[in-house]
Specification:
The structure holds 2 protein chains of 2 kinds.
Chain A: H1 3-9, E1 21-30, E2 33-43, E3 48-52, H2 59-66, E4 74-79, E5 82-83, E6 86-89, E7 92-95, H3 98-105, E8 108-111, H4 123-133, H5 139-152, H6 168-180, E9 186-190, H7 198-214, E10 218-222, H8 226-232, E11 235-240, E12 243-248, H9 250-255, H10 260-267
Parallel strand pairs in A: 3-10, 3-11, 8-9, 9-10
Antiparallel strand pairs in A: 1-2, 1-4, 4-5, 6-7, 11-12
Chain B: H1 5-45, H2 50-64, H3 68-83, H4 89-114, H5 118-126, H6 131-161, H7 173-184, H8 188-220
Helix pairs in contact in B: 1-4, 1-6, 1-7, 1-8, 2-4, 3-4, 4-6, 6-8, 7-8
The chains are: A alpha/beta, B mainly alpha.
Bound molecules: adenosine-5'-triphosphate and magnesium ion.
Chain lengths: ~280, ~220
């Protein structure tokens, strides 16, 4: 890849870095409906990629394939040099079993549109259950980690409460903390604010911005918040009809969209030159 | 026929109270068995592997659709010939009623499991829980809470079915009442008192279930 291409590709400095996630010719169909069409996509360590596109373009499916919530119809995904959906047996790729998925999946974390907190556990337990059961941390250490993360998302006071007593924005902040305590290398956010009341969107976006600033984790942000994408992302990928139609640094994507589709799409958001949605 | 109070108090009530424990033990034993085996059946029934889920389904339907009395007779009278296994009436009773009710409870578990939203499974996968941990930490606790009242009702129904066990010679409440009747030729007092005892126990159990239901409703808010 030449220098000029890299510039166009992402604002992130990928010099000498190997992608942590590689999608290769990934296709996904639901019955006759081909949702993703031979997608090639790289995500670099520490890079933050915003994924935008119209409803039904395959954004969620793209993330769910990496989280192993959906099985690809064709193609491969590599995470940190290991195949996710395949195992190598005698030099041949065979479909992965649950044990293999379990090993590779640990690098990925995900925040869902509808939070999906565990309603029967306190906030603290929501954060410590997986570190204790999955990572095998001693309870004390898990609680230390949990407290630190709750602090980070501004939810320390609610540690003893149950999810049902929190607002949507608060629940989503807890859900973010719950994903973070697992210390994934890659975090997926699937429209983390689109189920929220308008008043609480800001608090969640701020938390995500804070995390993004720390910069050690790769992030894939599916969002309809264009100003947020512009502010946080190193790269914006525009999905339409199961393909990446256009991608580049936010400054390019929002000010000089190349394709007609993207121009049309951005019109719907009324994005001005600064990427501010109005 | 005149109601005899002294007979009631000096003979019927003491002798019935002596065996009330047998009825309660059989109920609790069979229910505990059904609660455990019912869960196992529900999980096997959900298996992706057809050679596991289909036979399980067949077994559940077969047991559910044949009379418990026939199953009890089979265990008590046929097992000794078939497996050389002679069981006491109590053990055979717990096994028979336990298996029968485990098939009902497996359906109840199934409903509970299906009531857990898909997002809960997905969050558990995203946190990399193993399948077993998923069930233990995330799915079962949520599946079981809403079905507790239904399970409580099955406990009461099971309790009322324990007189069947008198047919395989278990000296429980009804067996004892029949015995007293045969000895004294008086059936009114023993069966009236048996009825009242069942009523008292069922009714208090149903109050407990109601309370549990209310509490669960309150907690959900
Ligand atoms: N489990 C499923 N079964 C069948 N079709 C599905 C399933 N999941 C997604 N689809 C279809 O795949 C297509 C892409 O869905 P996807 O959720 O990836 O889109 P999206 O870009 O995230 O859209 P949105 O912006 O509305 O969230 C849609 O047409 C959807 O109906
Ligand atoms: Mg989506």
């Amino acid at each position: 890849m030449t220098d000029t291409q890299e510039k166009r590709f992402t604002a992130y400095d990928i010099d000498g870095k190997e992608p942590i996630v590689k999608y290769r010719k990934i296709s996904k169909s639901f019955g006759d409906n081909e949702v993703l069409k031979e997608i090639d996509f790289d995500l670099y360590p520490g890079e933050r990629v915003a994924i935008i596109g119209p409803s039904g373009s395959g954004k969620t499916t793209m993330a769910r394939l990496l989280m192993t919530l959906e099985t690809p119809t064709a193609g491969t995904i590599e995470v940190d040099g290991r195949h996710l959906w395949h195992k190598e047996v005698n030099g041949k790729l065979v479909p992965a079993d649950e044990k293999h998925l379990h090993e590779v999946r640990g690098d990925i974390g995900m925040v869902f549109q509808h939070f999906n907190l565990f309603p029967h556990m306190t906030i603290m337990r929501n954060l410590t259950e997986a570190p204790v059961k999955v990572l095998g941390l001693p309870k004390k250490e898990a609680e230390e980690r949990a407290k630190e993360m709750l602090e980070k998302v501004g939810m320390s006071e609610k540690a003893k409460d149950y999810p049902a007593s929190l607002s949507g924005g608060q629940q989503q902040r807890v859900a973010i903390a719950r994903a973070l305590v697992m210390r994934p290398k890659v975090m997926l956010f699937d429209e983390p604010t689109s189920a929220l009341d308008p008043e609480t969107v800001g608090e969640v976006l701020n938390v995500i911005k804070d995390i993004a600033k720390q910069g050690d984790m790769s992030m894939m942000l599916i969002t309809h918040e264009m100003s947020f994408a512009r502010e946080v992302a190193d790269r914006v990928c525009f999905f339409d009809e199961g393909k990446i139609q256009e991608q580049g640094p936010p400054s390019e994507i929002f000010t000089n969209p190349e394709t007609e589709r993207l121009r049309e799409f951005l019109k719907g958001f009324n994005v001005n030159g600064n990427g501010e949605s109005q | 026929m005149v109601w005899k109070w002294d007979f009631t108090f000096n003979e019927v009530i003491p002798r019935l109270l002596e065996v009330i424990e047998v009825t309660i033990n059989a109920t609790l034993g069979a229910f505990a068995f059904a609660v455990m085996v019912g869960l196992v059946l529900a999980l096997l029934r959900r298996s992706d592997r057809k050679w596991i889920s289909w036979p399980t389904y067949g077994f559940i339907e077969f047991i559910r659709l044949t009379p418990p009395l026939v199953q009890l007779f089979f265990i008590f009278f046929v097992f000794p010939h078939l497996f050389g296994l002679t069981l006491s009436p109590m053990v055979a009773g717990i096994l028979g009623l336990g298996i029968h009710y485990s098939t009902y409870l497996s359906e109840v578990y199934r409903a509970g499991i299906e009531s857990v939203p898909k997002g809960q499974w997905e969050a558990a996968t995203a946190l990399n829980f193993s399948p077993l941990q998923k069930w233990k930490s995330v799915i079962l606790p949520q599946a079981i809470r809403p079905i507790l009242p239904v399970m409580g009702n099955y406990l009461i129904v099971l309790f009322k079915e324990t007189p069947l066990l008198s047919a395989i010679g278990l000296m429980e409440l009804v067996g004892m009442a029949k015995g007293i009747g045969a000895e004294t030729f008086r059936y009114t007092e023993p069966f009236t008192i048996v009825g009242i005892l069942f009523l008292i126990l069922s009714y208090s159990a149903s109050l407990l279930v109601k309370r549990m239901e209310l509490k669960l409703d309150l907690n959900r808010r």
